[in-house]
Amino acid sequence: MKEHVEIFDTTLRDGEQVPGCKLSISQKVEIAKELEILGVDVIEAGFPISSPGDFEAVHQIATVLKDTTICALSRAIETDIESAGAALKNASNGRIHTGIGTSDFHILQKLNSNRQDIIERGIKAVKYARNLCSEVEFYAEDAGRTDNDFLARVVEKMITAGATIINIPDTTGYCLPHQYGEKIAYLMNNVSNIDKAILSTHCHNDLGLATANSIAGVQAGARQVECTINGVGERAGNTSLEEVVMILRQHDHIQLNTNIQTEQLTHISRIVESEMNMPVQRNKAIVGENAFSHSSGIHQDGVIKSRETYEIIDPKDVGAGDSQIILTARSGRAALKYRAKLLKIDLNTDQLNLAYDHFLQLADRVTQINDYQLKELLNKEVLCHVRKLIKSGINTLLSL
Ligand code: KIV
Ligand code: ZN
Question: How close is the Cα of 141 to the center of ligand 1, in Å?
């Protein structure tokens, strides 16, 4: 029996804090509604103390959405926590997400403090938040570079103080998958009260490992993944929601499932892309424009015979329609015949051979041949030629 992993979406908080990705309040509310349809368990709607606009966005989202848990971020500071609590006032299911840096880099260089003081500030923040909200998540910022022994002590104390979700952020995207997985496993094995909380992954993509680290985390026992649509987020981004969800779906043996309606993934990706004005790279896994496109002759021939030869995901499962056979100078006859057939033009072998020569000449001139160009090519050049051949055949017959 598969276990459930909670999907915690932070597109509207960690994703939105990226320069150029700023959203208006109404855009945030619209995206939050789409996230609820998608089936995420938690929406981190913002950081209310950061600006009146962000406070209002969290407030409106918490008022409008009734099924999904709405989370608000705060530092381990009373005014921050109060603001988060106030913004969540109308939430059916609210969660305050508070925390503090736990790596020596953060403790010594950012907070000018010491380990004992950090634990005390964390405990105070969790207790304060618990008075304002029934659910509290604690983040140990830069946990990726925090010594595991100390991290285990912090986690134990925060659970005792009342946090029921403990976030282990790899804030700087530093860990390798096995290191991040071992960190989660260490906490699962060395925190005496770990059964009273769930561990959450929160990985950044500075080394391109955010998704791999999140998967290593859930394989080691974490039961919540923090992620964003299209992997938007600080610097190189956060863990991409669509990647994690599809990995868990494609790899049955991991024995974990989510509530995500995967056929909504392409739709929400396009919304976030356009609202945030943040183009998705064409070759992005799952939602990139090329994710289900085939342009080389060998691959096209395989996909036309059987989609599974070169695709591990049915594009319909992520709402991406059909696999695309792209016509370029690398395409073969099978692709040309297939695309012509989609235009309701059936080419026999002779026509195909003839068309293919003309096709290659055109394909070498343009990068990609679209339907219009293909129709023109087949109608004008090839079929004309074929007609001429037929006519000259008839003339030859008549002259006999
Ligand atoms: O990356 C991080 O550490 C964060 C925390 C504030 C949760 O985003
Ligand atoms: Zn983050």
Answer: 6
